[in-house]
Automatic annotation (TrEMBL):
Species: Planococcus lenghuensis
Xref: PANTHER family: IRON TRANSPORTER FTH1, PLASMA MEMBRANE IRON PERMEASE
A Pfam cross-reference name: FTR1
GO molecular function: ferrous iron transmembrane transporter activity
Cellular localisation: Membrane
Keyword match Membrane: yes
Family note: Belongs to the oxidase-dependent Fe transporter (OFeT) (TC 9.A.10.1) family.
Protein's recorded name: Iron permease
Organism domain of life: Bacteria
Membrane topology term: Multi-pass membrane protein
Ranges that cross the membrane: 6-27, 39-65, 71-93, 114-141, 153-170, 182-202, 267-283
Length: 320
């Protein structure tokens, strides 16, 4: 859980700080540093609002637990989190190169109209989005105990690493291609999303919401139990010791959704998830090629037009 919390917090905090950093850097570059306080005010209010959302979420979850229905809420959270995590990775991959341009364009509008409220609201919404996503993801990886994730070393470490990296990037002491960086971290986020999706399938089978054609497609308990309890039971029943400890299994289960005895449906869901990701990447890449070709064609047409106009002007000039 702590490693999941570290990766999620790191990613979410870094995205928020990068956008706030881009805005503040632009304000300084355009001699509008006086507006920085409004950007930080919006960001600060968003952090407070995110904490309030976490508290409200915990109250709602406690209410479901009192009614004995928390398992259904957990399943829903896991499924939605899996979708949101995947969407987050694709969104950042496609927008990382345009973030700077978009933020600067919005700041230009706010500065030209003196719209201080717009600056505050914009920075508030940017940070609040990341905050709400973090709350939701924490609920998914902890089974609803958001406080446990916030108090653990994973969330704190992730936030500190993100803050340090952002500081180094904007101070110019470190240079990292953001697109490559987000691709690498995106791989781990996608693995977490796949794990949450499969765990939701497993929980639905446990409470008989869905059935199973093959409850245990294979059994790797002898190699890597998914929990220390399974490790102990294997030793008790067979007198043998698994190759790897159940502590490793519980770590992999928390991080990637590992199961030593998965059902057929879990395996199909896991492989199907990555197949969908693969298809989405290929479709996106295929559609991007005509777009780039069209852009090149338009650029060439513009250049040809300018050259023709220039030649006309030269001819007119020679005649005169």
């Amino acid at each position: 859980m702590e490693v999941q919390a570290l990766l999620i917090t790191f990613r979410e905090v870094l995205e928020a700080l990068l956008i706030i950093g881009i805005i503040n850097t632009y304000l300084l570059k355009t001699q509008n540093g006086k507006y920085k306080k409004y950007i930080w005010l919006g960001a600060g209010l968003a952090v407070v609002a995110s904490i309030a959302v976490a508290f409200l979420f915990q109250v709602v979850f406690t209410g479901f637990a009192a009614m004995g229905s928390e398992i259904y809420l957990k399943i829903g959270i896991m499924l939605v989190s899996s979708i949101l995590l995947t969407q987050m990775v694709f969104w950042m991959a496609s927008h990382s190169k345009d973030i700077k341009k978009n933020m600067e364009g919005k700041m230009d509008k706010f500065i030209s109209t003196g719209n201080v409220a717009g600056m505050i609201i914009h920075s508030f919404l940017v940070v609040l989005r990341e905050g709400i996503e973090t709350v939701f993801f924490f609920a998914a990886i902890t089974g609803g105990d958001i406080g446990a994730a916030l108090e653990g070393w994973g969330a704190i470490t992730g936030a500190l690493i993100a803050a340090t990296l952002s500081y180094l990037l904007f101070k110019g002491t470190m240079s990292i291609p953001l697109k490559t960086f987000f691709k690498v971290t995106g791989v781990f986020i996608v693995l977490i999303a796949a794990g949450l999706f499969v765990q939701a399938i497993s929980m639905m089978q446990d409470i008989k919401v869905i059935g199973s054609v093959v409850p245990h497609l294979y059994n790797l308990t002898w190699l890597l139990p998914e929990h220390p309890i399974d490790h102990a039971h294997f030793v008790r029943d067979t007198g043998l010791t698994p190759v790897f400890s159940g502590d490793i299994g519980i770590f992999l289960k928390a991080l990637f959704g590992y199961s030593s005895m998965p059902s057929l449906e879990e395996v199909v869901a896991y492989l199907g998830y990555f197949l969908v990701i693969y298809l989405l990447i290929n479709v996106k890449s295929t559609s991007a090629v005509p777009a780039r070709a069209k852009q090149r064609s338009e650029t060439q047409e513009k250049e040809a037009f300018h050259q023709t106009e220039k030649k006309k002007q030269n001819i007119v000039s020679d005649i005169n």
